[in-house]
Design brief:
The complex is a heterodimer.
Chain A lengths: L2 H25 L3 H43 L4 H31 L7 H40 L1
Helix pairs in contact in A: 1-2, 1-4, 2-3, 2-4, 3-4
Chain B lengths: L3 H24 L1 H11 L2 H20 L8 H27 L1
Helix pairs in contact in B: 1-2, 1-3, 1-4, 2-3
């Protein structure tokens, strides 16, 4: 267990939930819902950047030197070679998608009520943030399983 | 960031920059070495470059006029992220096998 992993996962999941909230608010928007969605999207962007920094710092310090060699020597080396490698790059896309969603809500404001195209754009990108962020959580589970599998193979 | 055309265009190019960097570091060791020498670790360099690309292109593409076809921009961004993600996963799967 590592506190940076806890921070990375918690900030990431709350960031994802923030954009789920934004998407739901925008399905049937009113002035107050748009105001709320703007705040929540801003908080979501901050959470996802915190997740990026925490996860990145852990990846560069502990993961590269300690976890990666263990996984690669274990029974599930693909959990690093395929899943971690994919995760570390797709993860970079999420804060930018979040910034786009926040910008859409801030930029259009109450015109989202009448502008269906802008509203659907904000819902689409927010939903994509949610899907990508939860996909990261799933990949994190696979990577943890790769590490645990390697340790179990050594101990048991 | 209220210039929505700038944000969307910058995000699309940034995503493809990430995809190209991810693949190029595996195919060209010299590129990986350049990134490592730039920031100490290639992932740090990719993070820094993607942020720089996004903000520079945001300034480059920004326009006070909102695009008429905003949904087309958003769909292009969503497709870029999904296809780009699939390309990265497919590449690393192929590389492992």
């Amino acid at each position: 267990m590592h506190p940076l992993i806890g921070l990375h996962a918690t900030a990431g999941e709350f960031g994802a939930l923030a954009f789920l909230w934004v998407a739901v608010e925008l399905l049937n928007p009113t002035e107050s819902r748009i105001r709320r969605a703007t705040w929540i999207a801003g908080i979501g962007v901050i959470l996802l950047f915190i997740s990026w920094i925490a996860g990145g710092y852990y990846y560069l310090t502990d993961y590269q030197s300690i976890v990666k060699p263990v996984i690669k020597a274990g029974p599930l080396p693909w959990s690093h070679s395929v899943i971690t490698e994919t995760k570390e790059h797709i993860f970079l896309m999420i804060p930018f998608l979040a910034l786009v969603s926040w910008s859409l809500v801030r930029s259009y404001g109450t015109t989202l009520i009448a502008d269906r195209g802008a509203r659907m754009s904000a819902v689409l990108i927010s939903a994509l943030v949610v899907i990508f962020a939860f996909a990261m959580a799933g990949m994190g589970f696979i990577i943890s399983s790769g590490f645990r599998g390697a340790l179990e193979a050594t101990v048991l | 960031m209220k210039n929505i055309r700038g944000v969307l265009s910058a995000a699309i190019v940034t995503i493809w920059t990430i995809v190209v960097m991810a693949i190029a570091t595996e195919i060209y060791p010299a590129f990986k070495a350049i990134l490592t020498s730039f920031a100490g670790q290639h992932w740090t360099a990719k993070s820094t470059i993607s942020l720089a690309v996004f903000f520079v292109l945001y300034l480059f593409f920004r326009s006070k006029e909102k695009p008429r076809n905003i949904l087309s921009y958003a769909v292009a961004l969503a497709l870029s992220a999904v296809i780009g993600g699939a390309v990265i996963f497919g590449f690393y799967l192929w590389h492992f096998l």
